[in-house]
Amino acid sequence: MTTLSSNWDARRTDLELPEEIDLQLQMANVGSRTLAILIDLSLCGLILFVVYSLTVLFARDTAGDFITRISGHALTILLFLLIFGFQWCYFFLFEWSWNGQTPGKRLMHLRVIKADGTPVSGIDVLLRNLSRPIDTFGPMGLLGLLMIFVSRKAQRLGDLMARTLVIHETKIDWSIFDEIEASGTAAQGATAISPSIRLAADQWELLHRYLNRREQLQPEMRQRLAQSLYDNLRPLAKGTDLERSLLPPEEWLVELARRT
Amino acid sequence: MLETIEVRGPRRTSRPFLQELSALYRATTGDLAYAQTHYRGTTLLLFLHQLVARAHNQIYRPHRFSLRAAGNFFRQEVPRAVREHLQAVTWSAIIFLLGTALGISAVQFDEHAASIILPTYVLDSIYSGHLWTGSIFSVIPAPVTSTFLFTSNISVALIAFAGGLSFGLITGWILFQNGFMLGVAFKLCADYGLLGALLTFIAGHGFLEISAIIVAGGAGFTVANALLNPGSHSRSDALALQGRSAVRMAAVSVPALVVAGCIESFISPGEFSTPFKVTLGLTLGGVFWLYLLNSGKNPR
């Protein structure tokens, strides 16, 4: 995983927003970008194929009546416009109107942003997509791939020219936070009685993730994980009533979670 | 909340909503700064990063598209970019004309040289004493040919722009090739007594079309120049800087080529008088250059 530390606050205002933080964004890797392109291209190809078949069907019938000929010509025009549109406008229009995403990028959770973290504007998108014949389409795609591999921020030539990045938007597992909010109110009373135990952040997270997922685990796996967590977290409970508790590992972990 | 604004955009939300969003945003950035110091490497941190990034995207959004912005783009930004890079446009014109000159002399030396660049049906019709255009435009209706012509011409122009990234090699090749083709066609038609007919045919659209290609070529050379002579900037900075004005130059060739393509198929093959075509062509080309050289000079 390549992470990028960008100095976030390029335009601080007089309000002195508390924004002087490094925001880490996950760069999209070569594989997902290639896949996104392939999805987009197959979408275009599919539409072109349908229109092309229709055109051929109508155009074959040159001796046909007036309506057939007119619609044949209309389809031919449509075909030219589509070929042109897919080559030059498809990526541009989608990335412009969908804030840096095309259908393929949306499926792969990718997004184009400016190198300083702001959303892309029309001219950025135009720049990065007009350069596609040089570094994306056909054999030139190899050049684009190479650029994504070697350049520090995974930028192809068009990205360099438009100063854009393609980032990966990770899906966050919201569930552990939801659970805590729900249990947080319920556990208020319990903490008052027994002294709370301090866990390090990663231990805490490990514990909650386990408790959250345990319903989906297979029984023996569930037992094994509980045992190993129990062994690891046991020393932390020193000096509290939990140390002497004889609960089985899993119940013990639930108790522990309630007291942190 | 973020989802709402991502879907709706700021215009269609209420003022209190926006105020709450900005307050929450500030609170979250504070949380993030705290979490970065105290909870390194947790999912919580990742989550806060994402949240802040999404909110940041919504809060600092660029200007949305408007007609006024588009008008401004074509009235001021485009001509200014062209004037700034007039040298690149000149080079592009020189290479195009060089191609033309070479085309003419190539046919002068050896008539068969034409066969390397012109397709056979064009050669056949010239040898038999007609212009090739007549046969195409009488069979296929004008709307179809015009669409084909302007889409392919715009593709050529845009590739000429993008070719700048290949240090100008592709740009130069495209300009040279098109110039060469023109030169060959001219000389060959002259040899077969068709020069008048050809001139009449291209009078209406030729000037505008060639001008647009040359400007797009100039855009390509601007990009190439940024790569080759970055000056006091780093190469990538120069590229980003010059690319911005170069893409404006390339953009202007699009509407120009649409107009040229329509004239080429609707008017050029038609039964219009030669003076009319010549006037139209000169006017359009003249207006195009006057626009590029003068528009937006005195911003209010």
In short:
The complex is a heterodimer of chains A (260) and B (300). Chain A is an alpha+beta fold and 260 residues long. Chain A is 60% helix and 8% strand.
Characterise this structure.
The complex is a heterodimer of chains A (260) and B (300). Chain A has 260 residues and is of the alpha+beta class. Chain A folds into two domains: 166 residues, no CATH class; 84 residues, no CATH class. Chain A is built from 13 helices and four strands. A four-stranded antiparallel beta sheet of chain A has the order 1-2-4-3. The two termini of chain A are 32 Å apart. The N terminus of chain A is likely disordered. Chain B has 300 residues and is mostly helical. Chain B has two domains: 58 residues; 216 residues, no CATH class. Chain B is built from 13 helices and no strands. In chain B, α11 packs parallel to α13. Chain B is elongated and about 85 Å long. In chain B, 39% of the residues are buried. About 2% of the residues of chain B have low confidence. Classes of the chains: A alpha+beta (260), B mainly alpha (300). Chains A and B meet through β2, α2, α4, α5 and α7 of A and α2, α3, α8 and α12 of B.
